[in-house]
Design a protein that fits this description.
Radius of gyration: 22 Å
Number of strands: 0
Order of helices and strands: HHHHHHHHHHHHHHHHHHHHHH
Structural class: mainly alpha
Helix content: 55-70%
Number of helices: 22
Amino acid sequence: MKKYSLALVGRVLAISLALVTPGLALAVTPADGASKENEAEPRMVREAVAVARQLRQSDNAFDQIAAAGTLVDVGDKEALQFLADTMDHTDWALMRSAIDMLLNVQHPAGVDLIYRAAQRNRDGVFVKFLSESLATRPREDMAEFLMGAVGGTDTWVKKHALQALATLPFTDKETRVRAIAEDDAQDSMTRAYAYYVLMDTPARTQSLERLLQLADEGSPDAQEAAAVGLGLVKNDKTRAALQRLETSSNARAQLAAFASEAGFGENGAIAHIVEAITHGTGMDSSVAAASVRRMPPPVAIRISEQVTGCCKLDTEVAARLLESWASIDADPTRMLEWGLTHADPAVRMQAVWLVGERRERAWLKRIAPMLRDEDSGIRSMAAWAIVRVLGDEYDAGVEI
C-alpha cells in the first residue's frame, strides 16, 4: 500500500479505486441557458459526493479516509465516526491522515472529537502529529489545546504549539504567554517562541528586545525562532541581527534569517531563497518553499514566479510552495495555472487542494472534469475541493 505524508487534506493521498461517473444529461434548449447554468453547480457537487461514496468502498485505507473527509462535510455521520475511530489507529500514517482530515472538516463535532482523542492520548505521537498539523494550519478553536500542550515537557510539541499560537487570538494571551516567556525554568527555544507569540500583543517592544538577545545568545533552536520573529520588524537592529545569523554555522537559523530579510524585500536575500527552493539540499528546499507563506504578497509573488518560471521543482517542494499560497493574500491565478497543468499528478493534486482551501469558486469548472481523471488521487481531491466550496448546495434527496 502506498503512503503519502499529508498537510491537512493538501497532502498527497493514495487512491486506487477506478471510477467512471457519467454526467447528468440535461434536456434543455438554447433558451434554457440560464437554467442550465443554475443547475451546473448542484450537479457538480452531486457528482463529487458520488465520487467520494465510491472511494469509501475502496480496499485502500487511505482511499477511505480521503472519501470520509469529503462526506463528513455533507453530513455523513458514519464517515465522521470512521475518522474518529481511525485517530486511534496503531498505524501512524493512518492516524496522521485522520487527524488532518478532521482538522479540515467543517462539521461542528470535528473539533470535539479531536479533543476527546487528545485526552485519550495525552503523550506520544498523537499530540506530536496534532501540534505539527496545527502549526501549518492554525485553528482558533484549538487555541486552548495548544496552550495546554505548551505546558507539557515535549519540546517538539511545545515548539509547534507556539508556532500555531503566534497567529491566534485567545483569552488573556499576553498574560498567559508572558508567564512562559519569563519562566527561567523553560529552555531558550521555548522562551524564544513565546516571545515570538507575544509580538502581536502590547508586549511587542519588550519581546523584540528579548528576541534580539536570543538571536545572539540562544540555542540553535532559539536562534531559529528569533530569526522568524525578527522578520516582523524592519529596523537597523533587526537587520543587523539577521545578517549575523546569515553568517552563522546554524543552518536552520541561517535559512530563517534569509527568509525574514527576503520578506523585507532585500534582493540578496530573495535571491538566496530562490536558490534554496530550486537547488537546495536536504530539507532546505522544502523549508524555503514553506517560508514563502510568511512574506508580504509582492515578495511571495516575485519568488513564486521566479522559481516556477525557471526550474523543475522537486514534487515535495512544489507541493509546499502551493500550500504556502493558501494564506497569501494575492491573486493565485498564476500558481493555479502552473499547478493544474503540471506534469506531476501529485503537484496537480496539491493545486486542486488549493482551489478548495481558498474556496476559489471561479475555478470549480476547471477542476470538475478531474472527477473523472485517470488518477484516483486527483479524483478524490477534486471531490473534496468541490464539496468544500459547494457543500451547502448539496441536496441529499437529489442524486445523479
